[in-house]
């Protein structure tokens, strides 16, 4: 738990993504994005348990394909943000359909990050003891604890960011800053992912 909480409190791409969504769209968007990240993490956990994620550790081709797909997706989301009008940032205009799309966008940004997959197959096994029984069950349990901790941290951050944003949502200058900040963060995260190495 000490290692898990410490890692989840360390600023990273998921944290920046959720904060940018909360600042741009409000509390609910931050919450939905946090849950989307958690859903993506569950996919990585499943792949780690099945041993599929190990392929990304040994195959530069598989790693590169997933990395480029993830980077391209983040950059695409950022460009789409720049293309929207400032009025589209108003929280009150969001619909359930938009929130559903935000959830899946967050999940996909996490799923398409090969570094998350490699993290799971290198971090979790350090806390597994074969003498304690089924290894897959141990990895699953540890992964669930890690994910729950991570989602909690993201939700708390998104609530702070969203509350701050909503206090300024009627400020025209803040609306423009939101648009440029959130879109720029997504593009920068995409560029960062594109240049990540396999190690």
Describe the structure.
Helix content is 78%, strand content 0%. The protein has helices spanning 2-9, 13-25, 27-50, 54-58, 60-83, 96-111, 114-123, 135-167, 172-194. α5 packs antiparallel against α6 (96-111). 37% of the residues are buried.
Number of strands: 0
CA(first)-CA(last) distance: 25 Å
Strand content range: under 5%
Poorly predicted runs are 87-92
Give, in order, the helices and strands: HHHHHHHHH
| Major sheet | none
Report the principal-axis shape: globular
Mean pLDDT: 83
Count up the domains.
Answer: 1
Radius of gyration: 18 Å
Q: How many helices in DSSP terms? A: 9
What share of the residues lie within helices? over 70%
**Structural class by helix and strand composition:** mainly alpha
């Amino acid at each position: 738990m000490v290692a898990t909480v410490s890692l989840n409190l360390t600023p990273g791409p998921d944290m920046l993504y959720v904060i940018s969504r909360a600042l741009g769209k409000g509390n609910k968007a931050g919450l939905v994005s946090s849950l989307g990240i958690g859903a993506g993490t569950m996919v990585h956990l499943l792949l780690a348990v099945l041993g599929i994620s190990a392929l990304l550790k040994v195959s530069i081709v598989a790693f590169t394909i997933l990395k480029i797909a993830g980077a391209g997706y983040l950059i695409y989301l950022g460009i789409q943000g720049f293309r929207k009008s400032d009025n589209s940032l108003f929280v009150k205009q969001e619909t359930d359909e938009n929130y559903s799309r935000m959830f899946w966008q967050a999940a996909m940004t996490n799923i398409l990050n090969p570094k998350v997959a490699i993290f799971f197959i290198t971090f979790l096994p350090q806390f597994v003891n074969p003498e304690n029984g089924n290894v897959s069950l141990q990895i699953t349990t540890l992964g669930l604890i890690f994910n729950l901790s991570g989602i909690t941290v993201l939700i708390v951050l998104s609530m702070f960011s969203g509350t701050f944003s909503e206090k300024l949502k009627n400020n025209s200058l803040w609306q423009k800053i939101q648009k440029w900040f959130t879109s720029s963060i997504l593009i920068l995260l995409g560029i960062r992912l594109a240049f990540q190495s396999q190690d």
